[in-house]
Amino acid sequence: MASSSSSAPSSQSPKKYDVFISFRGEDNRFNFTSHLHEALRTNQIDTYIDYRLEKGDEVWPSLEKAIKDSTLFLVIFSENYASSTWCLKELAKIFECSKNQDHLVMPVFHRVDPSHVRKQSGSYERAFEEHERKININNQQLQRWKEALTQAAGLAGWHCGFNR
């Protein structure tokens, strides 16, 4: 009996990027993330990073398309990741896509305790307190972001501390 999984045509379109990197630029753009990006490129892994945004492009539609067009997501959690609504919006979209398609999400905890991400404590708690004060962010959106953080922190990933 032949296996249908190897012979059936895929209904999904081929992905444009191998990896999408989600990160807080202010925390690690010019150190950890830039080194990781270069290592991936050196190994011919087509990586989407926000450097690829074209001047004049609308930011969110371009990021959303790149997320949909990626196979693997590296989410680099850092001290101030949750203070960025852009990062949280990306993370929620990443998990939305990973539910509907064959995507792999790999968290990297860069100089942040994974339990702070999972429980939204420490700097993550302070970030959400600040988001709650903003009138343009509703409770449903906040809950979606918290669930995405909890889900991501529940995945096996890498913890890169200060001395590594």
Give a brief outline of the structure:
Helices cover 49% and strands 16% of the residues.
Q: Layout of helices and strands, plus pairs?
A:
Elements: H1 4-7, E1 17-23, H2 25-42, E2 47-48, H3 59-68, E3 70-77, H4 85-100, E4 104-110, H5 114-119, H6 123-133, H7 139-153, E5 158-160
Helix pairs in contact: 3-4, 4-7
Mean pLDDT over all positions: 85
Across the major sheet, the strand order is: 2-1-3-4-5
Number of strands: 5
What is CATH's topology name? Rossmann fold
Q: Structural class of the helices, strands and pairings?
A: alpha/beta
Question: What share of the residues does DSSP label as strand, in percent?
Answer: 15-25%
CATH homologous superfamily annotation:
Toll/interleukin-1 receptor homology (TIR) domain
Report the sheet with the most strands, covering strand number, pairing sense and barrel closure: 5 strands, parallel
* Highest-level CATH class: Alpha Beta
Instruction: Specify the helix fraction band.
Output: 40-55%
Overall number of structural domains: 1
Oligomer: single chain
Global outline:
globular
Number of H/I helices: 7
Q: From N to C, what is the helix and strand string?
A: HEHEHEHEHHHE
Task: Tell me what you see in this structure.
The structure is a single chain. The chain has 164 residues and is of the alpha/beta class. The protein has a single domain (13-160), classed as Toll/interleukin-1 receptor homology (TIR) domain (Rossmann fold), CATH 3.40.50.10140. It contains seven helices and five strands; from the N terminus they run αβαβαβαβαααβ. It has helices at residues 4-7, 25-42, 59-68, 85-100, 114-119, 123-133, 139-153; strands at 17-23, 47-48, 70-77, 104-110, 158-160. A five-stranded parallel beta sheet has the order 2-1-3-4-5, with helices on both faces. Helix 4 (85-100) crosses helix 7. The longest helix has 18 residues, at 25-42. The protein is globular, with a radius of gyration of 17 Å. Mean pLDDT is 85; it is low at 1-11.
